[in-house]
Amino acid sequence: MSATVDKRNDVDPEETAEWVESYDDLVKARGRERARQILDELNARAGRAATAGDSLVTDYVNTISVEDEPEFAGNEEIERRYRSLIRWNAAVLVHRAQRPDIAVGGHISTYAGAATLYEVGLNHFFRGPDHPGGGDQVFFQGHASPGMYARAYLEGRLSEEDLNGFRQEKSKAPHGLSSYPHPRLMPGFWQFPTVSMGIGPMNAIYQAQFNRYLRARGIKDTSSQHVWAFLGDGEMDEPESRGLLQLAANDGLDNLTFVINCNLQRLDGPVRGNGKIVQELEAFFRGAGWDVIKVMWGREWDPLLAADTTGDLVKIMNETPDGDYQTYKGESGGYIREHFFGRSRATKLMVKDMTDAQIWNMKRGGHDYRKVYAAYHAATVHNGRPTVVLAKTVKGYGLGHNFEARNATHQMKKLKVDDLKAFRDQMHIPISDAQIEADPYNVPYYTPGPDSEEIQYMLERRRALGGWVPERRNSPKSVSLPDTKLYAVAKKGSGKQQAATTMAFVRLLRDLMRDKGFGQRVVPIIPDEARTFGMDSFFPTAMIYNPKGQNYTAVDRELFLAYKESMHGQLLHTGINEAGSFAAFTAAGTSYATHGEPMIPVYIFYSMFGFQRTGDAMWAAMDQMARGFIVGATAGRTTLTGEGLQHADGHSPILASTNPAMKIYDPAFGYEIAHIVEAGLEQMYGSDSEDRNWMYYLTVYNEPISQPAEPADVDVEGILKGIHKISSGGENGPKVQLLGSGVSVRWAQEAAMVLGSEWGVSADVWSVTSWNELRRDGLAVEKHNFLYPDEQAQVPYVTRKLADAQGPIVASTDYVSAVPDGIRQYLPNRFATLGADSYGFSDTRAAARRFFHIDVHSMVVRALQELAAAGEVPASAPKEAAERYRLLDVNAGTTGNAGGDA
Predict the structure, then answer these.
(1) What backbone phi and psi angles, to 5 degrees, belong to 264?
(2) DSSP 8-state class, residue 265
(3) Half-sphere exposure of 565 (CA within 13 A, CB side)
(4) How far apart are CA 142 and CA 277, in angstroms?
(5) Contact 511, 486 (CB under 8 A)
(6) At 389, is the pLDDT very low, low, confident or very high (cuts 50, 70, 90)?
(7) Residue 410 pLDDT > 90, yes or no?
(8) How far is CA 205 from its chain centroid?
């Protein structure tokens, strides 16, 4: 709703002027506060009159009137019959998994309350992958997974043995079923992981945007594909659930529908016991520019609402808080008669001829097929805006008095014998008391058989809609990767100029994007720091994706690197928005499965704002088997020192290492980056690769250095596996091994020169491109040797690499000591680490590195200390060196060049 008046559409400007004059007179006579009170009252009045255009909140009734409901396009009776079968089997699936010898839990009530919301979609709206226009993408609510398994059982996709493997993925393999939607665990079934609340809404929005992006760039026609996200009303309290709604509205994503299951309950109690979550969400979404469709009441309420000439019923509906609505469904029809209808003489008379049972059986809108169908039908009409369907339901609907709307419903995993019998009767399941009583933890599933009317109808509906949902397919088009010649420039070094590894990476990315057979598949993603990373050079040529193009005159239009937006743009420039950026990464990185179109996302950002800020989203991307490059720029604790504590990344490799789908590299030079990127592309998208589902995390820095050319005898295997030697110190004098990664490799090289020229120590220097890959290899070797003691013992790669290295090993890093310490147990020699532990702060690079004692001279002193302990140098050498280099004086540091700003 616009905050300004569109005078072009004013049908009576004269009357409008009179109203404005009246308002001005009121302000003049009574003051602005009184004028505001009058406006508030008028706004509330407009809401009660259900004039959506005049208010963010409408009455607590259905948005779509009875007269405007479309004709239901199916056989409601048949659909109701097999919906009951699905609900029964879903409850039994969880109930069986809770038998005493298993007790792995599950959730009964979520699907019970949402069955209608899913079934209307699956029978009439959700397109499968074989549909001529392409398949829809459906984000199923995590806790509702038993319902999807129960439906797949009736469809013949899952067996009874599969259902019995619910939450027993290893012990019942190959028949185990994951607890929630987990594509990595069930790669042929689920498309999207959603149980990390808030991640589903965020990813759904960016999935819808990415669908439009693919179409705009001519890669795939996605115009008929729709994105559906099923969410809980309690889930909408997550910041991620609401924080990105503006993108959907700004981009006009009418290919997106949120369906919010408003059962008014969180996991432990009411969402807004004293308030009204539906009204709150309506205002929030409408204010964000979405269409809002409320599905509040079932058809049984239609005659009562039609007879509400006084407005008393709607007034009661508007004024009743959610806590009371929950209580009504936990009580009886008589209780509702007294405490709801009894609040007005007019409403009490409305139900005087109804029995308590009839009052109790008046459904909420989310359980009424026709009401939900009407909402979905309206949501799929393209009108330039995303839609949210707010469907009011009862958690645990149909499971009986002990479950429905109870605060503990979410934690209740099993049904008592009487509950089972009552549920069976309500669902009309032909199972006897004797079958239930014989083994209450092994209650039978039920299917009428593949030739029954219900199953044939169900299968026909899915055939008409294009196949199974959910289903994940992995048959992407092949990708022609760039020729190895493309990487030649990155391997030449920087010559007489200096270049940070961030710039080395960006130049390589530019060359990849220019490759004729490959470049269009690269999706650069930047959270509003393109100029910081030197990526503004992409603006004029690749351009920034905006579905509306650029309808303004850019202030920097005269500049060679002017900001340029285009509806065909290649860059996803997401604004100050790391969460949205990673949602975009996930959509692009899984396009090979969702669309059969492999796309290569390259997300570049301030390294401090990656895993620390969006780690949960990165975990969901792992679960969805996303592929692509994640580039933590301005990396290190002392390299961006001017920015201070909150920008000082000393730990992202540690956080990244907790994600098992992440390969983590900390390259020092451009030629290392070239080999890592080339190998990453081959692994993720190469035709011969079998182990494809990886994300590559590279840390790059903003400190310019002279980039060396690739040596003729470059150790490519060592670069990819995690360590390679870049210089040898010679044969004379005591020996020491200096290890660095990223910017600290240069410190190790300088330390080697100081040790040789001033102390007669011969130092070999190694670039550790990946501490994490070395540790991962070591752990794998340890596990193999543990499990297979009869086989010849394997040796970790880093152990083999340093087997002939002489002397102690000293490692320095711009990260915390825990990063290099990860390989300590695999090293054959004494090992000392220097890390940037504790907090970051603002200062010069040299001062910060001296403060943390990770700089050149700290490496020298530490090496001398280790050599002295071994009797290789005089015992006095470490103290003498510490005094000579003023090791305790931060102003004596000389490591690194000036700078440190973004």
Answers:
(1) 70, 10
(2) B
(3) 14
(4) 21
(5) yes
(6) very high
(7) no
(8) 10
Low-confidence winner among 190-199, 300-309, 663-672 (lowest mean pLDDT): 190-199
Using CB atoms within 10 A of its CB, is residue 883 exposed (0-12), middle (13-18) or buried (19+)? exposed
Q: CA gyration radius for the chain?
A: 32
Q: Which two tokens stand for residue 794?
A: 């394997």
Cis peptide before 470 (omega within 30 of 0): yes
CA neighbours closer than 13 Å in the CB half-sphere of residue 649: 28
| 412 — pLDDT class (breaks 50, 70, 90) | low
Task: For residues 872-896, give the mean pLDDT.
Answer: 96
Is the model's pLDDT at 44 over the cut of 80?
no
DSSP one-letter code for 293:
E
Residues 219-259 have pLDDT tens digits of: 999 999 999 999 999 999 999 999 999 999 999 999 999 99
The helix or strand, by DSSP H or E, that contains position 368, with its residue range, turns out to be none
DSSP, residue by residue, 780-830? HHHHHHHH-TTSPPP--HHHHHTTT--S-EEEE-SS-THHHHTTGGG-SS-
Averaged pLDDT for residues 515-532: 92
pLDDT at 375 over 90: yes
pTM, two decimal places: 0.91
β-pairing, 695-699 vs 628-633, is parallel
In whole angstroms, give the CA distance from residue 161 to residue 93: 11
The closest alpha carbon to 698, from 727, 649, 733, 662, belongs to 662
Residues 169, 185 contacting (CB under 8 angstroms): yes
Which stretches within 265-355 are classed as H helix? 277-287, 302-306, 312-319, 322-330, 333-339, 345-350
Per DSSP, helices labelled H in 440-568 are 453-465, 488-491, 501-514
Tokens 């009504």 found at = 328
Residue carrying structure tokens 């285009």: 566
pLDDT score recorded for residue 693: 95
Q: pLDDT for 426-472, tens place per residue? A: 899 999 999 999 998 899 999 999 999 999 999 999 999 999 999 99
Beta strands in 10-144 (DSSP E): 137-139
In the block, which residue shows the tokens 């109701």? Answer: 80
CA atoms within 13 A on the CB side of 472: 22
Three-state DSSP string of 132-174: CCCCCEEECCHHHHHHHHHHHHHHCCCCHHHHCCECCCCCCCC
Do 785 and 826 touch, CB atoms closer than 8 A?
no
**What is the identity of the amino acid at 804?**
D
Residues 6+ apart with CB under 8 A from 808: 736, 737, 829, 830, 831, 832, 863, 866, 867, 870
Residues in the chain: 902
Query: Torsion over CA of 268, 272, 276 and 281, rounded to 10 degrees?
Result: -90
- Strand, coil or helix: 22: helix
Q: Which of 108-122, 530-544, 635-649, 786-800 has the highest mean pLDDT?
A: 786-800
- Pairwise CA distance, residues 119 & 157, whole Å: 17
Assess whether pLDDT exceeds 80 at residue 417.
yes
Residues 6+ apart with CB under 8 A from 363: 297, 298, 299, 300
Asked whether the predicted pLDDT for residue 118 surpasses 90, the reply is yes
Q: Could you give the residue ranges of the DSSP H alpha helices within 595-736?
A: 611-623, 652-656, 670-685, 716-721
